[in-house]
Amino acid sequence: MAPPALSLSLPRALSGAPGSPLPGLLAPRQSLQPPRHLSRCLTRKPALTRQSPISQVGLLPSCPPPRSLSPPPSAPPQPLPAPGALPASSSPPRPADQLGWRTRAVAPGRGQGRRQGGPDQRPRALELAGAGPGAPTAAPSLGRVMRCPKCLLCLSALLTLLGLKVYIEWTSEPRLSKAYPGPRSTPPGPTPACPEPTLPANLSARLGQTGPLPMAYWNQQQWRLGTLPSGDSTEAGDCNAWGAAAAAEIPDFTSYPEDLRHFLLSAACRSFPQWLPGGGGGQVASCKDSDVPYLLLAVKSGPGRFAERQAVRETWGGPAPGVRLLFLLGSPEGKRGPDLGSLAAWESRRYSDLLLWDFLDVPFNQTLKDLLLLAWLGHHCPSVRFVLRTQDDAFVHIPALLDHLRALPPSRARVLYLGEVFTQAKPLRKPGGPFYVPGSFFEGSYPAYASGGGYVIAGRLAPWLLQAAARVAPFPFDDVYTGLCFQALGLVPRTHKGFLTAWPADRTADPCAFRDLLLVRPLSPQDSIRLWKQLQDPQLQC
């Protein structure tokens, strides 16, 4: 049976002259007719012309995809001519599937199936239609994307992930501020180009609070102080309220050593008047503009340690150009010993080098001496270049120390914190020792700090350290507390091998070994005087 006739308008290049049949392509009596289910669709489409390429002709949405059309049996398939080339009149006829009509049949019952295309999901009918690089490409419409289950699934997944990311970023910030004490990034600190102290609004990261907030009392109080604005007048807290809160919030407060309990009850009290001897006199003179010391020797002592103070005066703390000596003491009228008020009054009038304050002079109150000294420097000696803070049982080689300070670069001298530095030290948990710290009071490691036996700081840092102390919770050990204040300012201590603050008691003080040292302790008053005389001997051979 003969195939049905096909009435189709072809491009001019394929149809030849108007009104004439195609010689060699289609016989006049062998014209193809489209299937019945495509006849209605093809009648609504415009005719194919050179201005309307095959790649731009599609089926109406209401029409089902056609089945593949088979060519006449007598016409074997031939290769497609090059794009743009006009076929010869004797060319064999092109099969219907090479005219762009072959598409995949629709799966019954689930709408249109997946099209046979490449990675760009272009319909295979467009590829077979001869759309080369220069041919226009039909952009995928929203309807095609919506009809593709895989594309719709990917789009939904992307939108879900985007919404989840926005939700997490929006809700995680306030939660982190409550559960995580401090900023997630380290605040800017001093750099070699600009080693100046800075005091950020939040000290949590600088003070090592970079993990979950511990439940220890000091850590809780430090987090509260660290988040207060720097200009807040309530930074230091109420004197009596802080101690009452410590006694109420620490569960095992009654098991603390007595000295530690007394310290916590009054740790926030930092304003004490100077103790002045009766009868007048004994006032410590301020630094005059014409006589500003280059190095101030601030020596911590106790009211009953007159022999140690006298040994310092007669040896390394004696009068020297650019050097001034001061002793830091608490009240001589303490409750734990004899009344030494009259002796301290005589000594103060005799030497005028005693800075006394009206507080109990006990080991846990040594931090008060540091804070009150910083306040005194700001009012009476603000232009001092360097301050040596040491103990009355130390021996300092002043000439060697002055040579070292004068040789410092200006950038390092402006932020100097020099001594025997301890790093990654941890609190001692064994009860009964002098440095015992309960776990309910403090958790974590100590900052890098210079030993309290002796260290040197730049005098210009005194007001900075006072500001930092108002933002750092009280701590019972003075050297650790000083390290915390320097850490709050973003400054680090520098170690020097000439500082030896744990000199063995059974070791003989060799004067030749001391020539290369800057500070050694502890030494008895007798050993200090003997060593001093040996160093002053012009016949000393080393």
TrEMBL record:
Family matches, as Gene3D superfamilies:
3.90.550.50
Q: Which UniProt keywords apply?
A: Glycoprotein, Glycosyltransferase, Golgi apparatus, Membrane, Signal-anchor, Transferase, Transmembrane, Transmembrane helix
Task: Write out the annotated subcellular location.
Answer: Golgi apparatus membrane
Pathway it works in = Protein modification; protein glycosylation
Among InterPro entries, the record links this protein to: Glyco_trans_31
Q: Where is this region: Disordered?
A: 1-138
Primary place of residence? Golgi
GO annotations of cellular component type:
Golgi membrane
- Which spans does this entry mark as compositional bias, Low complexity? 1-28, 126-138
- Gene Ontology BP annotations: poly-N-acetyllactosamine biosynthetic process; protein O-linked glycosylation
Q: Name one GO molecular function term.
A: protein N-acetylglucosaminyltransferase activity
**Membrane topology summary:** Single-pass type II membrane protein
Any Pfam family from its record, for instance, is: Galactosyl_T
Source taxon at top rank: Eukaryota
Biased amino acid composition, Pro residues: 62-95
Q: Which family, according to the similarity comment?
A: Belongs to the glycosyltransferase 31 family.
Q: What the protein does?
A: Beta-1,3-N-acetylglucosaminyltransferase that plays a role in the elongation of specific branch structures of multiantennary N-glycans. Has strong activity towards tetraantennary N-glycans and 2,6 triantennary glycans.
Q: How does it assemble?
A: Interacts with B3GNT2; this interaction greatly increases B3GNT2 catalytic activity, independently of B3GNT8 enzymatic activity.
Q: What is this protein called?
A: UDP-GlcNAc:betaGal beta-1,3-N-acetylglucosaminyltransferase 8
Q: Which organism is it from?
A: Camelus bactrianus (Bactrian camel)
- Tell me the lineage of the source organism: Eukaryota, Metazoa, Chordata, Craniata, Vertebrata
